[in-house]
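Subject: for your reference before the review

Hello V.,

The reviewers asked for a structural picture of the protein, and I figured it would be easier to keep everything in one thread rather than splitting it across files. Below is the amino acid sequence we used in the manuscript, unchanged from the supplementary table.
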Amino acid sequence: MNYFYENIMIIPIFIVIGYFIGRGENNGFKYAFNGLLSAVGLLFIGAVFKEIPWWLFLIGFIIFVVAITNAEERKNKDELESGFDDELEDDCENIIKTYLTPYVDQKLKFKKMKNDLTACEFELSTSINLMDYSDFLKTYYWHVVSYKVKKESNYQCSQCGSPQNLEVHHKDYDNHGKEHLVWKTDLICLCTDCHSKMHSDDGQ
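And here is what came back from the structure prediction:
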């Protein structure tokens, strides 16, 4: 073990390097401990082979520095992604809550709503499909979408051309919860009479 004691100075060197690498992330002592383990490992290898070739020492040192640097980068990345996911989840919850509350008299902005919901489409669809349909028809979301459909139809029934008592009809409900994405193909503007007739013809 004489070799071990003769070269023991690499231990404080690795400890100090580890401490300063990790200090900026409040992990100085953790990395200093990693430096201690790396240095002791090299010393034991040297004790077995009676020496540590300069190239082995250099390789060991590089591996040590790269390993702890990459570990910190992965940690920071994981924390960032985790924080982003949590933030996105909170944002979606707030956004969906806003658009699925009963419509009062807000200014209808289809484009803004569509942009707001871009990252929350799955959560929105799930929430809508869990709602009672009568409650869905009262939401700000439905008022924005139906307003868009009526406007596109020039505020006329697509069947008879009447401008009175207009409503918006689902051709089917396969995309229920995604009306803001499929409104041009899945929704049509009808007057009350044509809407009732449409449902009668469909057997609904």
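For the response letter, the relevant points are probably these. Strands lie at 166-170, 187-191. DSSP finds ten helices and two strands in the chain.

Happy to draft the paragraph if you're swamped.

O.
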